[in-house]
Amino acid sequence: MPTTQDMTSHLDPGLLDALQHQVAIFARRAEQTRLGGVGQVRNSMDRAAYLLLNRLDQEGPMGVKALAAGMGIDSSTVTRQVAPLVDTGLVKRTSHPEDGRAVVLQLSPRGQTRLEEVRSSRRELMAQVTDGWSEQERESFCTLLTRFNSALSARQSASQDPAAPTS
């Protein structure tokens, strides 16, 4: 089985160093600014809430376990993060239509409105940050960042799977 050293020996170490450095800077800047949008809505919703609301909006009502699995986090983390969203009326807890004992989480109308306000603000921030970029540059960056995030997610999933091969 190839080692990590074997897999990177044919790659440009300077480029890999530059890449890891830029990713570290991006992570710091993203956390500092929280990429929270512009205007009054700026930084008004934390990352966890945004990601949970966004997933419920895109995929519809679901249980805690399904939500946690889709986000690659623990069910207890989702439960903890959803509680304030339920308390503020952004998410509704309902009974599962087929199994009344199971709980389903659903974006409320208030949550839908709030999510769209935040999305709009963040969309404006992305437009400002990428001002001067061509549409093709934005598309390429989005494609590569999506690919990068998918690779990180796959790596994280593999490291959590005890049957996964290790190097």
Describe this structure in words.
The structure is a single chain. It contains seven helices and two strands. The protein has helices spanning 4-8, 13-33, 47-59, 64-71, 75-87, 109-129, 135-160; strands at 91-95, 103-107. The protein starts with a helix and ends in a 7-residue tail after the last helix. The model has no long low-confidence stretch (mean pLDDT 85).
Keywords:
167 residues, 2 strands, mainly alpha, 64% helix, globular
Mean pLDDT: 85
Low-confidence stretches: none
Number of continuous helical runs: 7
Could you tell me how far the N terminus lies from the C terminus, measured between alpha carbons in angstroms?
Answer: 7 Å
Rg from Cα: 19 Å
Which percent band covers the strand fraction? Answer: 5-15%
Spatial order of the strands forming the largest sheet: 1-2
Shape: globular
- The ordered string of helix (H) and strand (E) elements is HHHHHEEHH
Main sheet overview: 2 strands, antiparallel
What's the count of strands?
A: 2
Structural class: mainly alpha
What fraction, in percent, of the residue positions are helical?
55-70%
